[in-house]
Specification:
5 helices; 6 strands; 4-stranded antiparallel β-sheet; elongated; alpha+beta; Aspartate Aminotransferase, domain 1
Length: 179
């Protein structure tokens, strides 16, 4: 149906090992050849060791089982993170979040009077971090009251503590704005 109209770009850094810098693409042969040329012009070659690690992984491990385990693991962490948000952000704070169906990030929207870039610096002081949402919007359409938070790396204990700290930082920000 989509023959020749879809290009897939994939990386092992999300399914095997962060930083491995090995990926592949699927698409029409003429497009794949152009990708190979561009990659060669920019990076020369990917280390053989990394390529061999990926080859061995593909040959010796059942990817479907690996993906099922990975999905289950991150789904549990996501649900734990969502529970921590529910527990620490009462509705009257005006903080909203997505429930992603995939990926390793949550998108959080705070009340419009909060600039998440300013909030970011306050959060860093409390040893928590997020990516201010404004960098994900094109010029002229920026929104300054959103953030992206990763839930894949922290432990459950760190998630609980981090969400508590984020709630406290937002409350401090709102208090400063009122004075």
């Amino acid at each position: 149906k989509n023959q020749g109209h879809v290009i897939g770009l994939y990386t092992f850094s999300k399914i095997l090992c962060p930083g491995i810098r090995v990926g592949f693409n699927i698409g029409p042969p003429e497009v794949v050849k152009k990708f190979a040329f561009i990659k060669g012009a920019n990076i020369l070659n990917t280390p053989k060791l990394n390529q061999n690690i990926c080859r061995t992984f593909l040959q010796e491990y059942d990817l479907d089982t690996h993906f099922q385990k990975t999905r289950h693991y991150y789904s549990e962490k996501l649900n734990f993170f969502l529970e921590a948000l529910e527990d620490n952000f009462p509705e009257d704070m005006g903080v909203k979040w997505t429930k992603p169906e995939g990926g390793l990030f949550l998108w959080i929207t705070v009340p419009e009077e909060i600039n998440t870039l300013d909030l970011f610096y306050m959060a860093i002081d409390e040893k928590i971090a997020f990516v201010p949402g404004e960098i994900f919007y094109p010029e002229g359409f920026k929104k300054y009251n959103s953030m992206r938070i990763n839930f894949s790396f922290p432990t459950k204990e760190e998630i609980v503590e981090g969400v508590k700290r984020l709630s406290t930082v937002i409350q401090k920000y709102q208090s400063k704005k009122k004075t």
